[in-house]
Amino acid sequence: MKERVLKAAAAYAIVAAVLLGYYIFVRLTGLGIPCVFHKLTGLDCPGCGNSRALIALSHFKVKSAAKHNLFIFPELLFVGYTALYVTIGYIKTGSYKAMLRPAWLAWGFLALLVIWGVVRNII
Which pLDDT belongs to residue 99? Predict the structure, then answer.
């Protein structure tokens, strides 16, 4: 079990290093990941503004983050819950199971994401 905890911690450290590297790259160059959906349609996808919102949150600018993408808050809750669920499952069993329990949570989040994608282009 101790080995699984170390592996999970290493995975989180790698994710944190990649995010930090992306943050530094964006701050130094001003270049971020472009949204292909936005470039093709001119509409905002549900995730448009997430990078800017996360950077704003890293500076504790909650209002600014909400202006970039209001849905960032439910997204962070969902991603945090999913990461915790999968990590605990891995530490206990040694197996990665991405299927969330209850399953309606994942489907509900997906439905909210689609609804947000429509609503943000109407308002």
Answer: 67
Quote the CA–CA distance of 93 and 8 in Å, as a whole number: 13
Contact 39, 45 (CB under 8 A): no
At 8, list the tokens. 């999970």
pTM, rounded to two decimals? 0.85
Contact 92, 84 (CB under 8 A): no
The answer for residues whose C-beta is within 8 angstroms of residue 83's C-beta and 6 or more apart is none
Q: How far apart are the first and last CA of the chain?
A: 50
Distances (CA, A) of 107 to 111, 112, 123: 6, 9, 24
76 closest CA partner among 50, 56, 102, 99: 50
Stretch 68-90: mean pLDDT: 93
Task: Answer yes or no: are the C-beta atoms of 101 and 84 closer than 8 Å.
Answer: no
